Amino acid sequence: MNILAGDIGGTKTNLAIFSLESGLGKPLSELSYPSGKFDSLEAIIREFNAHTSLPFSRACFGVAGPVIEGRAQITNLPWVVDAGAIQSAFNLTTVALLNDLESVAYAIPILKAEDIFTLNEGKSIQGAPIAVIAPGTGLGEGFLTYACGHYIAHASEGSHTSFAPENELQMGLWKFLKDKGYEHISFERVCSGALGVPLLYEYLKSIGAASEPDWLAAQLAECPDPTPVIFNAAHDPQEPAPLAAATVKLFVEILGAEAGNLALKVLSTGGLYLGGGIPPRIIKELQHPDFLEFVRAKGRFRSVLSEIPIHVIMNPRAALLGAAAYGLSMND
Q1: CA separation, residue 44 to residues 10, 51, 131, 210, 322 (Å)
Q2: 284: Cβ–Cβ under 8 A, 6 or more apart, which residues?
Q3: What are the pLDDT digits (tens) for 39-83?
Q4: Distances 9 to 100, 147, 150 between C-alpha atoms, Å
Q5: Long-range contacts formed by 166-170: CB under 8 A, 24+ apart
Q6: Per the CB 3.0–4.6 Å rule, which of 33, 210, 215, 230 could disulfide with 246?
Q7: Is residue 155 packed enough to be buried (19+ CB in 10 Å), middle (13-18) or exposed (0-12)?
Q8: Domain tally for the chain?
Q9: Strands (DSSP E) found in 263-315
């Protein structure tokens, strides 16, 4: 039996076919597509089918958006993904939709040692809840609870809760965004790749927080997506750009604060995992004491948060593997 698994994000869509016989070790076929160049998930599946002759009878997709009764409006794409419509279009026995953080969470129990980077060893409590926060194109949040001998993943839209400034610099950021006309300032607005990083950079530039080299200003003026340019400039081995480095530092501090919020909300004494595309790119900054300080700075619960293990998911295929793991466990 074969299953089509997918990781459906605002930037790219990864599809792969797995079999029950060969398991999760290696997919039978795997391809990646730029999401924005297609008008629907069905269009990408048809393109995928044109490149492989492998049959599949069921499918499971992790999608970047809330899943309600088998349907999802993708948060950063003009798509509606409907499980029933996909099942009918491709004559499948079963189609499951997971929130993308559910699919990342389902991968956590099957990750190998080389798939994670530990920021805080802590003390993991067996069977306790596990939290997952994932900054990428957007900001995702989810968690795992333990029941009947295995972990169950749960979706959340916690990243759309209100951003709470932690210091004067962040208060200035909040006011800057209010003055720009944002009625609701969420954590995703200030802690994501597509939305957050460019706004942080713009804010820090507006207050003269650090210098902007002419070469960086020229690159940003010409590129459609400033976030990779800002990260590359911050990590330039010859001449790191001060304004880009300040942007990454502020991003890390906000991420730490919200990661600590999530850990408290689900009391994730089983661990806190950072997923998404951004954390592996900023490992050096995450290792700085400031990150853990912002995670732990929760008053009376500082000692609890200090004991929670914190890991970065380094495997970029985690969401795909999680969707496949869930899909292979489904009953028709």
Answers
A1: 13, 11, 31, 43, 20
A2: 235
A3: 999 999 999 999 998 999 999 999 988 899 999 988 778 899 999
A4: 8, 29, 27
A5: 166/253, 166/254, 166/257, 166/294, 166/297, 169/209, 169/250, 170/250, 170/253, 170/254
A6: 210
A7: buried
A8: 2
A9: 271-274, 310-313
Spatial contact of 235 and 252, defined as CB atoms under 8 Å apart: no
pLDDT number for residue 330? 81
First to last CA, the chain: 11
**Same domain (yes/no): 262, 175:** yes
Both tokens assigned to 324 = 């496949």
Within a 10 A sphere around the Cβ of 8, how many other Cβ atoms?
Answer: 29
pLDDT in tens, 265-316: 999 999 999 999 999 999 999 999 999 999 999 999 999 999 999 999 999 9
Q: Angle of helix 226-234 relative to helix 242-266, nearest 10 degrees?
A: 100
The answer on 87 and 52 residing in a single domain is yes
Are 117 and 312 in contact, with CB atoms under 8 Å apart?
yes
Domain holding 121, by residue range, is 112-314
- Asked if 139 and 40 sit in the same domain, the reply is no
Residue 58 CA to residue 70 CA, distance in Å, equals 15
Residue 93 lies in a domain: yes
